[in-house]
Amino acid sequence: RRERQRFVDKNGRCNVQHGNLGGESSRYLSDLFTTLVDLKWRWNLLIFLLTYTVAWLVMASMWWGIAYLRGDLHQTHDDTYSPCVANVYNFPSAFLFFIETEATIGYGHRYITERCPEGIVLFLFQSLLGSIVDAFLIGCMFIKMSQPKKRAETLMFSRAAVISQRDGKLCLMFRVGNLRNSHMVSAQIRCKLIKSRQTPEGEFLPLDQCELDVGFGTGADQLFLVSPLTICHEINSESPFFCLSQRSLRSEQFEIVVILEGIVETTGMTCQARTSYTEDEVLWGHRFLPVMSLEDGFFHVDYSQFHATFEVPTPPYSVKE
Fold first, then answer.
1. Are 121 and 234 in the same domain?
2. Which CATH number do you get for residue 265?
3. pLDDT at 14 over 70
4. Is 31 a residue whose pLDDT tops 80?
5. What is the mean pLDDT of the chain?
6. pTM for this structure?
7. Containing H/E element for 320?
């Protein structure tokens, strides 16, 4: 079967692009901090470098302009003359004075004199502007580096979902696992069935979302994700798969989106991992191979068998039948 378009990729990326925003695109500028955080790294680094470079050049030009307007550049050899900034006699020296002031390096060769009120005002403005730029850009870079997106890459989902019997009931199951030793605090899992349907009134819903019960009433959706777990959705009269049989599965078109959320133990930030299963990734009459074994004093998890399944006797009929 030709691979069809997914709503959510296997790696969790949502295949949705927003277009024709019109005047609504100005909302991105009203939340500039979040917009910068959401940008790709190459654009963040470019904005970081350009902002500091432009700010440094502009402020250095202002110091050079004060020295030029006061005539300090022409009095460099007069020992009796008191300039605004000592030892600033061209643009490179003005630039070095700004860098020394901004970085609080203070080599001691260039300094402001008390006979320059405009220099004192510019120094105060430079200090305030530098603090604002540092807080904005460094805060943006820190938030971007500490985002828990990479943590989601160490959360695994089985490549396929299976349908088989468990405790005498037909169930849809898939497997989740955590590759790190650090835990996911308050881990919770949710499932959405995305399928096109038509309402009794004739309205066509191309991507209708329906919740799949994975243990909300029993608390089974709250995971203690220390070892790989098999998530189970019981197919009953309340399930959207109530009429699904082995034969009808071949002609169905749907997508199951799985969302795993939790708090990263080491950083305290919320992490979300996503994946999806299309109808051709649901195996009827299969079960997952065990991956846990008891070793000398500990439990061993064999991730080489994480995606492996085997066939089991399963009735080909739907629950309704």
1. no
2. 2.60.40.1400
3. yes
4. no
5. 86
6. 0.74
7. none
